[in-house]
Amino acid sequence: MVDHSFADLALAALYDSIYPWGPDDDFYLGLVRSADAVLDVGCGTGRVLARAAADGHPGRLTGLDPAAAMLVHARRRAPGVEWLLGDLRTRLWNGEFDLVVMKGHAFQVFLGDEELRTALGAVRSALGAGGRFVFETRNPAARAWRTWTPDRVREVTDADGRVVRVWHEVEDEPSGDRVTFTTTFDSPGSRVSRVSRGTLRFLAADALTGFLTEAGLRVVEQYGDWDRGPLTPTSPEIITVVTPVG
């Protein structure tokens, strides 16, 4: 789940508890371990790059995120990794990486066509010859947003020992390929409640391929789940591996 709520330092500390390590992290860690120079776009708290560094990754590991609060935790976790504040509009590279990853459904924050084209162009520029760009986006046919309801509450404990209840709620029916939702953080007894609002874009596989092709990127593999199962109409994910054309 991509959620801009975690720009707050205290809430950023809760991110890994709310979204614990899972099969998606294992998937990306395997890719990072096999690459010499890696750029993680939207790296968040940096847990995948940090794990690779702890395992003795010998190459370049670079994490990029627009939320300073997330990077505070990333730097504490792995000070030897290159952690950069910004996004694909503010940081440009020229063929420096053989792997670019965008995990945690970060791809879905690019709402407008031009915004998406700019991001893909920057990824294309960052990749060296034969490099790979790997990312995932939720399959719109699976309608994941239907499970974002107030009755599905996660409870975590913050640094002060307080229980924080977290839930998502879709504001309305999807508008085209966009879904707007709120995230609520509530700590019972403390009278503290924070609500943030965000929108994600759900692109179908054919539309996604069109944008990638236009950016000079060719799809070489596509999966429907983290076990590398085939992409089907009911798959929860569209996990895509692309390489530069030419």
Can you lay out the helices and strands and say which pair or pack?
Elements: H1 9-12, H2 15-18, H3 23-33, E1 37-41, H4 47-54, E2 60-65, H5 68-77, E3 82-85, E4 97-102, H6 113-126, E5 127-138, E6 154-157, E7 163-170, E8 178-187, E9 192-201, H7 205-214, E10 217-223, E11 237-244
Parallel strand pairs: 1-2, 1-4, 2-3, 4-5
Antiparallel strand pairs: 5-11, 6-7, 7-8, 8-9, 10-11
Helix pairs in contact: 3-4
Explain this structure to me?
The protein has 246 residues and is of the alpha/beta class. It is 25% helix and 33% strand. The protein is built from seven helices and eleven strands. The strands form two sheets. A seven-stranded mixed sheet has the order 3-2-1-4-5-11-10, sandwiched between helices. α5 links the parallel β2 and β3 (82-85). α3 crosses α4. The longest helix is centred in the middle third of the chain and has 14 residues, at 113-126. The model has no long low-confidence stretch (mean pLDDT 93).
With strands numbered from the N-terminus, the spatial order across the biggest sheet is 3-2-1-4-5-11-10
Please give the radius of gyration in angstroms.
18 Å
CATH architecture of the largest domain: 3-Layer(aba) Sandwich
CATH superfamily of the largest domain, by name, is Vaccinia Virus protein VP39
Helix content bin: 10-25%
Mean of residue pLDDT values: 93
The portion of residues forming beta strands comes to 25-35%
What is the number of beta strands? 11
String of helices and strands: HHHEHEHEEHEEEEEHEE
How many individual domains? 2
Span of the ends, CA to CA:
34 Å
The CATH C-level name of the largest domain is Alpha Beta
